[in-house]
């Protein structure tokens, strides 16, 4: 009799060892698949095969946390419940941190299953599993439930790592895109500020958070004429920078062969619309000056009005059209013409100049800007730009919340 007991104990020990070996082999296969970056559906399929064929789990519902709600990523066996019903049922066990029997639970959904298995990281629930048609009992039950929990934990960690890796790739891709956009942007900004007997140009470009959508340019066309432009493209990033690069190339090309500003704006509108299919737009102020006739022709295309200071007065230049890149045919297009007196100052700017976050009670708006130009319009372009920015940062104690571009010309 004693011999039979010893034999029975040995058999049980061998069975347990074989079971442990099978568990280790299963974990090893899952780990190898994870290391090979196997897709999520395949990992879930491997889990199902192990549960069905090795542990004889007849019914499974496996839910994982995604964007603050639980979604079912694996299910087999029994009648299918809605994801909402499963999530509500598991929510009743959210305080349970270890596998628990639920066959006698009062909830109608839960009692269709034998056990509830939660997966936690610290105090955060990452996943829930419901298993049913599972007949293991006695000494093996606790072992099997712990093994299932471990197996699922390994898979959840792998899924979390996949998610983090994807987020890191997206972050690196975004960072590289920003670097490329900065490179493109830097190529668009003129390296030298122009000065000759007829005009002196001063510029300030302050991108917000490294990369902006502002653009300015000054082009000496011939000995009697020059053209300038200030613009703001909607959006940020490499696509906005490339759009502005294309815009600059188009502007230079048409300015070289076309005297009529209305024709140039019409061409630019069609080019931008064709490139963006209406998904982006550009506001701009474009002007052409003939120093022999002392005539300034301009078009304001939905941009902040350029300010002309002459004879002690500050006048906004508003004639023009809408932003470009929105309409196939611009709804209206008016060209302004102004006689320019010697010593006139022309202040061009983007909307970032008006979008300041003030910590004082002082008001900053277009009327205040006109008054500032009227008071300080006698200054040189560089001195005017510096004084204006100092006035905002020190006098108004304001911080910029968008790109700021100032392009100021003194015409002699």
Please, what is the oligomeric state? single chain
Radius of gyration: 35 Å
The named CATH superfamily of the largest domain? PPM-type phosphatase domain
Unreliable spans are none
Taken together, the total number of domains comes to: 2
> Which range does the strand content fall in?
25-35%
Give the H and E element order. HHEEHEEEHEEEHHEEEEEEEEHHEE
Cα(first) to Cα(last) distance is 120 Å
Number of helices: 8
Residue-averaged pLDDT: 86
Total beta strands: 18
**What is the fold named in CATH at topology level of the largest domain?**
Phosphatase 2c, domain 1
Question: Main sheet?
Answer: 6 strands, mixed
Pfam families: SpoIIE
Protein name: Serine/threonine-protein phosphatase
GO molecular function: phosphatase activity
Keywords: Hydrolase
């Amino acid at each position: 009799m004693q011999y039979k007991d010893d034999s029975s104990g040995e058999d049980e020990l061998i069975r347990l060892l074989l079971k442990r070996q099978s568990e280790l082999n299963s974990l090893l296969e899952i780990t190898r698949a994870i290391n090979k970056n196997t897709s999520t559906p395949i990992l879930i399929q491997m889990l199902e095969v192990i549960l069905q064929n090795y542990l004889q789990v007849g019914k499974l519902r496996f839910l994982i946390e995604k964007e603050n709600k639980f979604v079912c990523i694996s299910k087999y066996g029994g009648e299918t419940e809605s994801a909402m019903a499963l999530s509500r049922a598991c929510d009743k066990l959210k305080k349970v941190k270890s596998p628990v029997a639920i066959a006698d639970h009062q909830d109608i959904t839960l009692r269709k299953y034998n056990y509830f298995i939660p997966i936690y990281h610290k105090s955060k629930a990452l996943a829930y599993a419901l298993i049913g048609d599972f007949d293991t009992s006695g000494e093996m039950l606790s072992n099997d439930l712990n093994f299932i929990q471990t197996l699922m934990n390994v898979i959840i960690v792998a899924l979390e790592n996949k998610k983090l890796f994807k987020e890191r790739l997206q972050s690196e891709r975004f960072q590289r895109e920003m670097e490329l956009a900065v490179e493109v942007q830097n190529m668009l900004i003129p390296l030298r500020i122009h000065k000759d007997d007829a005009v002196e140009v001063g510029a300030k470009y302050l991108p917000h958070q490294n990369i902006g959508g502002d653009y300015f340019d000054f082009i000496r066309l011939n000995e009697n004429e020059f053209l300038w432009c200030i613009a703001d493209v909607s959006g940020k990033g490499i696509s906005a920078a490339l759009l502005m690069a294309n815009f600059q190339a188009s502007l230079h090309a048409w300015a070289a062969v076309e005297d009529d500003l209305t024709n140039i704006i019409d061409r630019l509108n069609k080019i931008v619309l064709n490139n963006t299919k209406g998904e982006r737009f550009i506001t701009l102020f474009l002007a052409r000056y003939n120093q022999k006739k002392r005539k300034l022709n301009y078009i304001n295309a939905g941009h902040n009005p350029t300010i002309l200071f002459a004879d002690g007065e500050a006048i906004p230049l508003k004639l023009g059209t809408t932003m470009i890149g929105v309409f196939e045919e611009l709804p209206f297009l008016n060209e302004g013409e102004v006689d320019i007196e010697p010593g006139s100052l022309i202040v061009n700017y983007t909307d970032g100049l008006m979008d300041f976050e003030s910590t004082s009670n002082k008001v900053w708006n277009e009327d205040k800007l006109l008054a500032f130009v009227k008071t300080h319009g006698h200054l040189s372009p560089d001195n005017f730009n510096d004084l204006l920015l100092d006035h905002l940062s020190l006098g108004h104690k304001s911080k910029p919340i968008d790109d700021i571009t100032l392009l100021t010309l003194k015409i002699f």
